[in-house]
Design a protein that fits this description.
366 residues; alpha/beta; Rna Polymerase Sigma Factor, Chain: A; six-stranded parallel β-sheet; four-stranded mixed β-sheet; binds NADP nicotinamide-adenine-dinucleotide phosphate
């Protein structure tokens, strides 16, 4: 029986992780659960599983100490500290948090190596590549294609996106997810972060990572082989499959959820509209810049929270991030994890200062 600590247990990944554990009660025991503010649900989960619980991340080292597996289901930069703590403690980290892998994957892998820890991805696209390489051998890989649902605004023009509402942006057609990742899927910034994540996790250069819009979200990634073939990972769009795969790796049980029977499924593959969803173009423009993932992630964390608070319009997310690129991409790249964290904080502080300065100026102007 393996022990599991779940960070972000009241969120989409956290709740689905608990569903997997309910389906395999003889394999796993939940020992620790955390949330940000959902105290009532956290309390109910903690009673059901007989696990310790905490709001916030202050006691993370203590909560991790007796766990074999640590599930990171906290979004954004805030998830980074959990990954660092889990890997320093020599644990198996199951990371749904793609942001920390995108910005710090290289350092996280070093910490894992130093401490005998492991990183298993939960993100479906990264997991699909991991699964294909496990089944067919790492040597087959020549390049990869990450699929992308296209989000709720697939096919929309820039004009049509000008005044979209928060609710429309969060209404993802194929996945039920938390607000930040749903919004990132609408801007397609999610896919850009995943390219960075997969590049760091599997040492694949950006030039060998392609994107294909696949509205049905049934193919999760493709591995193009050295002999010219393509292997696709195809399942129902159900995150429990990916969580279960990582929890059971490498010995998989019979699937606990319905498998895809392609009786009435259509599969389409389209090119991403880079003119409307400008984020995809950033990969070509700035992908070679080592600061790109860090700057993108820091600015995106700010922009998504402003959009979700009603302080920014949808297209302004792109404008804000592009303006930030000019300012931050050409700073000296961080050489260590500590320098990367300082760089992130510098960007974040500068833009929160701008926001508060803006408010002061606005109030003086009234
Ligand atoms: N959902 C998916 O299907 C999916 C798929 C692939 C990857 N991911 C990745 O998984 C991560 C989590 O996504 P999600 O959709 O599960 O998010 P979510 O539904 O918003 O859940 C987030 C969880 O983290 C907690 N949390 C949020 N901010 C926190 C903070 N600052 N400190 C401590 N706890 C905090 C929340 O607690 P409260 O409930 O108290 O707010 C909640 O338990 C993201 O990085 C996302 O990109 C998600």
């Amino acid at each position: 029986m393996k022990t599991v600590a779940i960070f972000g247990s009241t969120g989409s990944i956290g709740k689905q992780s608990l569903e997997v554990i309910r389906a395999f009660p003889n394999d796993f025991k939940v020992i620790a659960l955390t949330a940000h503010s959902s105290a009532k649900l956290l309390d109910a989960q903690s009673k059901e599983f007989g696990a310790k619980s905490a709001l916030g991340l202050k006691n993370k080292e203590e909560l991790i100490a007796n766990a074999d597996y640590v599930i990171n289901g906290v979004p954004g930069f805030d998830g980074l500290g959990i990954s660092i703590a889990a890997l320093k403690a020599g644990k198996i980290l199951l990371s749904a948090n793609k942001e920390s892998l995108a910005i710090a994957g290289k350092w996280l892998k070093e910490i894992a190596k130093e401490n005998g820890a492991k990183i298993y991805p939960l993100d479906s696209e990264a997991s699909a590549i991991w699964q294909l390489m496990h089944e067919h051998g790492e040597d087959i890989l020549s390049s990869v294609t990450l699929t992308c649902s296209g989000g709720p605004f697939l096919g929309k023009t820039t004009d049509e996106l000008a005044n979209v509402t928060i609710q429309q942006a969060l209404d993802h057609p194929t996945w039920q997810m938390g607000p930040k990742v749903s919004l990132d899927s609408a801007t397609l910034i999610n896919k850009v972060l995943e390219v960075c994540e997969v590049s760091k996790l599997f040492n694949i250069p950006f030039s060998k990572i392609h994107i294909s819009v696949h509205p049905q979200s049934l193919v999760h990634s493709m591995v193009h082989t050295k002999t010219g073939g393509t292997k696709m990972h195809i399942t129902q769009n159900d995150m429990r499959l990916f969580i279960s795969y990582a929890l059971h790796y490498p010995n998989q049980p019979e699937p606990a959820w319905p498998i895809l029977r392609a009786k009435r499924s259509e599969m389409n593959f389209l090119q991403a509209d880079e003119e409307t969803f400008r984020s995809i173009k950033w990969l070509k423009q700035h992908g070679g810049n080592p600061n790109f993932p860090i700057v993108l992630n820091a600015l995106n964390d700010i922009a998504t929270s402003r959009f979700l608070n009603g302080d920014m319009k949808f297209l302004e997310i792109y404008d804000f991030i592009e303006a930030g690129f000019e300012k931050w991409l050409y700073e000296m790249p961080p050489k260590t994890l500590e320098e990367m964290i300082e760089f992130h904080e510098k960007i974040t502080n500068e833009h929160s200062n701008t926001a508060s300065r803006g408010k002061v100026l606005a109030s003086q102007a009234k």
